[in-house]
Amino acid sequence: MQTKFISGIMLKSAMVIAIFSVLSGCQKDLPAQQDPESVISGANPSSSASEPYPYNLNVILHSNTGQENSRGEIKFRQDKNVDRIITLATRVIGLLPNHSYQLQRAVDPISGTGCLSTSWLTLGLGLQPQTIDTDGQGNGYAQLWRDVSSVPHGTAFYIHFQIVDATTLATVLTSDCYQYAVR
């Protein structure tokens, strides 16, 4: 009788530990609200040897106008637990104060030779374009997203980004060419 009681306690303890382990692994990786000066390097946090193309990217935006202090980043994330939504946490630094900008992307199939497309799509909140508005120091942040549920799982693309002035549509920041796959 005592052996069954101890076995029952051990089984319940093991189940509680397993549940807490699973729950602690389900935390959503949200972009941190950081100081605008903390623009990071372009590492791909989700790439591994088993993934031919990454699902997540840290996209660095460089000045297109020669202004060294103008830059930005996009934390491009495809959460495993969300219905095929790519979040684009976009930060810009050193642009015109109190001004509006837009994020655009162009894609090419991996079968091509890289980022050659100039078919720019303005990004925002789903299909609704959204501006990135800067403060008095020329820094801005927007949490944008794109639904890719119509794209088959595993489809890979070349992708590049640009930030354009929302009034003149002049390009002010650009990215290098990246590769990613739809989760």
Offer a quick outline of the entry:
This protein is mainly beta and 183 residues long.
Structure explained in plain terms:
This protein is 13% helix and 38% strand. With 183 residues, it is mainly β. The strands form two sheets. Strands 1, 2, 3, 4, 5, 8, 9, 10, 11 and 12 form a ten-stranded antiparallel sheet that branches. Strand 6 and strand 7 form a beta hairpin.
Tell me the radius of gyration.
21 Å
Approximate helicity band: 10-25%
C-alpha end-to-end distance: 51 Å
Query: How many helices does DSSP assign?
Result: 1
Unreliable parts: 5-49
Which quaternary structure do these chains form?
A: single chain
Total beta strands: 12
The profile of the biggest β sheet is: 10 strands, antiparallel
Shape: globular
Q: In what range is the share of β-strand residues? A: 35-45%
Mean pLDDT: 79
Class per helix and strand makeup: mainly beta
Order of helices and strands: HEEEEEEEEEEEE
